[in-house]
Amino acid sequence: MTMNSVKEEASSRFEHPLAGKVVAVTGAASGIGREVARVFSEAGASVAALDINDDALGDLERSFGCRTFHCDVTNAEAVSQAFDAIGASFGRLDILVSNAGSAQQGPIGDLPMEDLRRSFELNFFGHQNACQAAVRLFRRKGEGGSILFNISNQSVNPGKDFGPYGIPKAATMALMKQYALDHGKEGIRANGVNAGRIRTGLMTDQMIVERAEARGITPHDYMSGNLLGVEVFARDVADAFLHLAQMEKVNAVVLTVDGGAIATSLR
Ligand SMILES: NC(=O)c1ccc[n+]([C@@H]2O[C@H](COP(=O)([O-])OP(=O)(O)OC[C@H]3O[C@@H](n4cnc5c(N)ncnc54)[C@H](O)[C@@H]3O)[C@@H](O)[C@H]2O)c1
């Protein structure tokens, strides 16, 4: 091998570190999931994008060349079928970014039980449905795999009246540790990201204005209320997932991506 070809190979590995890898992203049609689909595609991975929003999935296919799968992660049977289709389409799965979620609010003592259960279906059981289906695909190749959970810094620093969101997120952090513990010997890693306030479909511009007004601060100060004093973007969260996907000896770790706050920092 000549020096030039060594450099070319290294440069292509640097530019496309995930070439040959297949990643499934749930909730890929909007916000953080969409950025994950973009950065993993840019890194050379083949991306299977799952969501319930078919129009936005179509856009994702056109924009980044993802293969798209209509899939409600709260429906275990539908998840199983979607992952079978991913296996048939790509022949393998290397990485799952379990991202789909939404934020519910309400004071925990007054909350209709049904609201809490609905949130658990998406923000906890949705992850479990996707993970079980991914483990089945990882095992087919026998090469292990990487599960990446989109948790939230609410899992360690609950917000007032955000119980229906933060409690299943805390359970999802426990789920991450359980996958690392039970499946590490099979070469399956499990890690997570705890993001802070990110401008997406879940945290809209209007919500940001309302919350800032309620606190008597500007939307800019609300979004950059962290130790660095800067806004954190969906792209920053997607980059964290990309790095975790490549850190082959990192397991059972939560990376906090919120610009820093002592209340959300982990030991
Ligand atoms: N935005 C934030 O401030 C923030 C902070 C921390 C963590 N998160 C987490 O990031 C993840 C993504 O949220 P986002 O902020 O990008 O929101 P978003 O609303 O922009 O995107 C969520 C996506 O999930 C999809 N989805 C919803 N229910 C689904 C289901 N049952 N099956 C499949 N797909 C479904 C939606 O269609 C949408 O495309 C969530 O798990 C959320 O809890 C968000």
From TrEMBL:
A Pfam family matched in the record: adh_short_C2
Keyword Oxidoreductase: yes
Keywords tagged on the record: Oxidoreductase
Top-rank lineage group of the source organism: Bacteria
MF (Gene Ontology): oxidoreductase activity
Family from the record: Belongs to the short-chain dehydrogenases/reductases (SDR) family.
Protein's name according to its UniProt entry: SDR family oxidoreductase
Organism: Metarhizobium album
Lineage, highest ranks first: Bacteria, Pseudomonadati, Pseudomonadota, Alphaproteobacteria, Hyphomicrobiales
